[in-house]
Amino acid sequence: MTPATPATPLLEARALSFHRQDEPVFGPLDFRLDAGELTLIEGDNGSGKTTLMRILTGLLRPEEGELLWRGEPLSWDRCSGEVVFLGHQLGLKSELSPRENLRFAIGLHGSREHSQVDDALARVGLAGFENEPVRKLSAGQKKRVALARLLLIPAALWLLDEPYANLDRTGIELVNGLLEAHIAHGGAALVTSHGAVQFHGGEPQRIRLHD
Amino acid sequence: MAVLRRDLTLAWRQRGDMVLPVLYALIVTSLFPFALGPEDALLRRIAGGVVLVTMLLAMLLALDAMFRSDIEDGSLEQLMLAPQPLALMLGMKILAHWLATAVPLIVIAPLLAGMLHLPSPVIPVLLLALLLATPLLSLVGGVLVALTAGTRRSGMLLALMLLPLCVPVVIFAAGALAAAQEGLPWIAPIAWLGAALVMAVVLAPLACAAALRIALDS
Fold first, then answer.
1. Residues of A with Cβ-Cβ distance to B5 under 8 angstroms
2. Is this entry keyworded Hydrolase (chain A) (predicted)?
3. Per-residue pLDDT averaged across B160-187, rounded?
4. Which residues have a Cβ under 8 Å from the Cβ of B173 and sit 6 or more positions away?
5. Domain locations in chain B?
6. Is there a contact between A58 and A79 (Cβ–Cβ < 8 Å)?
7. Which residues contact B74 (CB under 8 A, 6 or more apart)?
8. Measured between alpha carbons, how far is B65 from B71 in angstroms, rounded to an integer?
9. Scanning every residue of chain B, which has its alpha carbon at the shortest distance from the alpha carbon of A59?
10. ipTM of this predicted structure
11. Buried b (16+ CB within 10 A) or exposed e, A40-65
């Protein structure tokens, strides 16, 4: 553990561990995340990266250990509105267009100042696809629609579960660009990956999960 | 509100699914005269009950799907992380579901009742009973769908759990119809339905939210 700093960290885990039917999935883990920090969660398939993510969103309860959000125990109602979660299931309605999906997300979460749905779609390289139903898009394009949500919704913490999956080279650069901008604006992010990620904006903190 | 608008847009995009319960109700009610014989007096006596039960069964067809697609595509997780009360959003989802499945059924109810020679003065009572009974079923059904959301093959379990809760709804609605048909005051059973509906409107979304949180916590 780092020596105590005056500011309370955005997110702090103390001896966090999780078991599924008495089999340990991961842990105990200790880490802290401050505003303006990026943390990579690394681990092989089945090492519990997604489970950890779901715990951090408050959708799953950890069995042992503590999770503190701004110094207080984390629960879904305390951090809602400050966390954006992008998981394997993108949360897009396949019958609706990217534009409609993003409008709905804004309706739920509110929107950042000066952000426009069409600008965000252009930024992720989907100009011209605004009105196509999402089911007609490719897996990578769907991912990009979900990434556009990150641009539109205000949040202090991004939880990105495998954001690079299904993306091509420009898509990976896009994710890195989004992360760098988010960090530069004082946001924090937790990103899971298999470990093959190049990040340019300084050396991120790494959490290693292993079986 | 965003939830309501999105779900209604979705229902409209998939309006083929909305037709199915209506078609089902139409087929079932038109089969009754064939099975029982076209005797006016008999049909008149059973018309109210047949239409009522058919409507409720037709609603069950679509009930199972209330939260399924949202769970499958991860939309529900996004709803849970939104800075708004989950119960309110689920209440809106149930309202959208009711508008998309029950309202078309209520619209064709007078037609079906007419086909079975239900006396026309009773038809307003039938509509009133349906207007109270169908949202009640949507709300109670929503809670049960949420409870069974985490399990595989939830359809069977859902039907078993819903049956005992359907019975009082059918009894009160049919009681009002029978009373109206005999020219007796029918307000008491309708009032019971109304009271149950008010209670369900308040409690069902809260129960739904709690049940879905448990379902996803696994």
1. 104, 107
2. no
3. 89
4. B52, B129, B130, B132, B133, B189, B193
5. 2-216
6. yes
7. A87, A88, A89, A90, A91, A92
8. 10
9. B217
10. 0.80
11. bbbbeeebbbbbbbbbbbbbbebeeb
**Beta bridge partners of residue A20, listed in sequence order:** A23
At residue B61, the pLDDT reads 84
Residues of B in contact with A103 (CB under 8 A): 2
pLDDT tens-place string over residues B197-218: 999 999 999 999 999 888 877 6
Interface mutation vs chain A, best among B4, B13, B78, most A CBs within 10 Å: B78
**Across-strand partners of A24?**
A19
B74: tokens are 């991860």
Residue found by looking up tokens 């998981």 in the block: A87
Do A164 and A175 touch, CB atoms closer than 8 A? yes
Predicted pLDDT of residue A3 = 46
Query: Is B68 in CB contact (< 8 Å) with chain A?
Result: no
Q: What is the DSSP string of B134-188?
A: HHHHHHHHHHHHHHTTTSSSHHHHHHHHHHHHHHHHHHHHHHHHHHHHTT---HH
Q: Tell me the shortest Cα–Cα distance from A211 to chain B, in angstroms.
A: 20
- A–B interface: beta-carbon pairs under 8 A: 78
Asked whether the bond before A28 is cis by omega within 30 degrees of 0, the reply is yes
**Token digits for B125?**
């009572």
pLDDT in tens, A1-56: 444 455 677 888 888 888 777 777 777 788 888 888 888 888 777 777 888 888 88
Indicate the angle between helix axes B187-216 and B123-147, nearest 10 degrees: 20
